[in-house]
Task: structure prediction
Amino acid sequence: MGMMDSIASSYMSMSAASLAQNYALAVTKMQMDTTEELALQELQEMLPEAPSPYSFDIRV
Result:
C-alpha cells in the first residue's frame, strides 16, 4: 500500500498546486481589470469638459 499512498499523495499535491496557480491567475486577472478601469477613469477626468472652439485638420 505504500506505493499507492505515495501516488495518491503526489496527485493531491499536484492538484493543490494547480488549484493555487489557477486562483493566483484569476486574482491577477481581476486586478488587471480593476487597474484598467481606474486608468480609463483617470484618462476621462483629464479630458477637457467642453470641446475646443478651434478646429483643424492634420494631414500627414
